[in-house]
């Protein structure tokens, strides 16, 4: 029987076969897609796309934390530091650049600890001091910090008033009053969001740096001497007050309180990975503006070093160079540069305004942290501004431009003397497992920072006692007048109290325990 068989399939069998074929086709396309994806990932274009995507995601994450570092970094190029830069360049050329560099390095290290305290314990430095110390010790620390902030704010207000005098020919007292109004206007941005305030200060600082760099491009800087002054430390004679002002202007105690509070304005999940990511972002966000304003410092010193140092046309000594007469000296040193004076006024106006806002914000944090009070925003701003506007007005009216220059240097020196009273509690808290838990400082970090803190105390004492020059103990010993004797007695009494209180802060243990540092793995 010739057999030609015919296979007859039912509709159900045809449907199953079609489904199987479709599934097979889908699987083939899926495998082909995986193969192509892997092939694309392994080629140059795929790797570049992945790299660029990671960069964009990292940058977007950094933008989330951008802002606090710009508020803090203004301490490196405020009006007091500006005058110190000009006097350093006019009197000692590039020899004191190393002071600014190492002050900036110490400021970065201290602010990293401040970031750790605020991020991991969710407490700022003022709140930690209130919780740990007795009421008497806390109030003493608050008085010292208020004195530092008044000295700093006094510097910025006088700088702002001097800039208004240069640009708009306003009298000094009118510029002081105008600073009160402009600061309140900028601070009013807090009503909408702190981010708006941070953005405003960032734009002001960028504008200031641009004016500095334009001025720097107009002079011929001696690069070899600049690098020598940067690398080789030296303390020229009669430079003690300038060095103190530079240290105080770079390492400001109120900036430590400000940073430890501002890092808490960003919401971060309580996991180790999220906290570490936030920590890295905050550190990088602070380093970028610090590097920028350090270069602006180099520009300010270079302007004075090229134009004022050993210039026969400059008839005033470096100690008499101040913000009030710098504009006239720029015209004398750079007669071909007509815009130099205007650029100087604009940079001074921008730096002073941003520093006033930053200082006022820090004052609010210190008052609220030490006293555990909450005031209305408008009342906090007005009270903080009134505390410093009164002494600034008195100096502007009674002492005028001549007295304001010395007031700037003395104010910066006060800042330098009060820095250890902020650094020592910060070190005690960040190395304590009671507050920081597993995020406490490693031993090598604690040893390094304690050496820096003790070194700052030694530098302050040495520059006042052991160095020759004006406003030091040796200058008082060379005079037998009644004022000199009273100055010596006051220096000894204050010095004994100063060292004794620092020893007490070092000895006093951490007595409170924070549970905020507990995290989810």
From TrEMBL:
GO terms for biological process: iron ion transmembrane transport. Coiled coil: none annotated. It is found in: Membrane. Its main location: membrane. GO terms for cellular component: plasma membrane. The chain crosses the membrane at residues 55-77, 97-119, 139-160, 166-187, 199-219, 239-258, 279-309, 342-370, 382-400, 406-427, 447-465, 485-508. Pfam families: Nramp. GO terms for molecular function: cadmium ion transmembrane transporter activity; manganese ion transmembrane transporter activity. It is a multi-pass membrane protein. Keywords: Membrane, Transmembrane, Transmembrane helix, Transport. InterPro entries: NRAMP_fam (IPR001046). PANTHER family: NATURAL RESISTANCE-ASSOCIATED MACROPHAGE PROTEIN 2, SOLUTE CARRIER PROTEIN FAMILY 11 MEMBER. This is Metal ion (Mn2+-iron) transporter, Nramp family. It comes from Galdieria sulphuraria (Red alga).
């Amino acid at each position: 029987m010739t057999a030609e068989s015919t296979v007859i399939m039912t509709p159900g069998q045809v449907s199953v076969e079609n489904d199987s074929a479709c599934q097979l086709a889908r699987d083939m396309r899926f495998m082909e897609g995986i193969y192509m994806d892997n092939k694309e990932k392994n080629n140059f274009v795929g790797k570049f796309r992945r790299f660029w995507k990671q960069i964009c995601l990292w940058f977007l994450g950094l933008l989330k934390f951008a802002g606090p570092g710009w508020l803090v970094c203004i301490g490196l190029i405020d009006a007091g530091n500006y005058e110190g830069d000009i006097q350093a360049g006019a009197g000692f050329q590039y020899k004191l650049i190393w002071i600014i560099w190492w002050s900036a390095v110490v400021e970065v290290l201290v602010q990293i600890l401040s970031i750790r305290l605020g991020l991991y314990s969710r407490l700022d430095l003022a709140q930690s001091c209130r919780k740990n110390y007795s009421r008497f010790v806390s109030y003493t620390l608050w008085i010292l910090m208020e004195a530092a902030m008044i000295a700093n704010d006094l510097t910025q207000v006088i700088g702002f008033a001097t800039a208004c005098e240069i640009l708009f020919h306003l009298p000094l007292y009118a510029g002081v009053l105008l600073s009160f109004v402009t600061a309140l206007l900028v601070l009013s941005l807090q009503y909408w969001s702190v981010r708006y305030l941070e953005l405003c200060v960032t734009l002001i600082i960028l504008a200031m740096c641009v004016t500095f760099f334009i001025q720097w491009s107009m002079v011929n800087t001696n690069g070899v001497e600049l690098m020598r002054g940067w690398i080789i430390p030296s303390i020229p004679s009669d430079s003690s007050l300038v060095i103190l002002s530079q240290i105080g202007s770079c390492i400001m105690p109120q900036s430590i309180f400000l940073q430890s509070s501002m890092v808490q304005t960003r919401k971060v999940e309580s996991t180790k990975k999220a906290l570490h990511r936030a920590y890295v972002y905050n550190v990088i966000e602070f380093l970028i503006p610090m590097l920028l304003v350090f270069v602006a410092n180099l520009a300010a010193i270079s302007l004075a070093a090229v134009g004022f140092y050993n210039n026969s046309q400059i008839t005033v000594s470096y100690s008499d160079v101040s913000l009030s007469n710098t504009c006239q000296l720029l015209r004398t040193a750079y007669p071909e540069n007509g815009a130099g004076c205007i650029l100087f006024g604009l940079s001074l106006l921008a730096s002073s305004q941003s520093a006033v806002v930053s200082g006022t914000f820090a004052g609010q944090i210190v008052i609220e942290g030490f006293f555990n009070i909450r005031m209305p925003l408008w009342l906090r701003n007005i009270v903080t501004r009134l505390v410093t506007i009164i002494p600034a007005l008195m100096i502007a009216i009674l002492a005028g431009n001549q007295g304001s220059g010395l007031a700037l240097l003395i104010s910066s020196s006060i800042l330098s003397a009060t820095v250890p009273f902020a650094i020592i509690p910060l070190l005690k808290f960040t190395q304590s497992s009671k507050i920081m838990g597993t995020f406490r400082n490693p031993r090598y970090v604690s040893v390094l920072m304690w050496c820096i803190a003790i070194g700052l105390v030694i530098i302050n004492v040495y520059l006042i006692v052991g160095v020759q020059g004006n406003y030091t103990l040796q200058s008082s010993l060379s005079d037998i007048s009644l004022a000199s004797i009273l100055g010596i007695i006051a220096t000894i009494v204050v010095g004994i109290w100063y060292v004794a209180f620092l020893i007490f802060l070092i000895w006093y243990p951490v007595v409170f325990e924070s549970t905020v540092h507990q995290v989810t793995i």
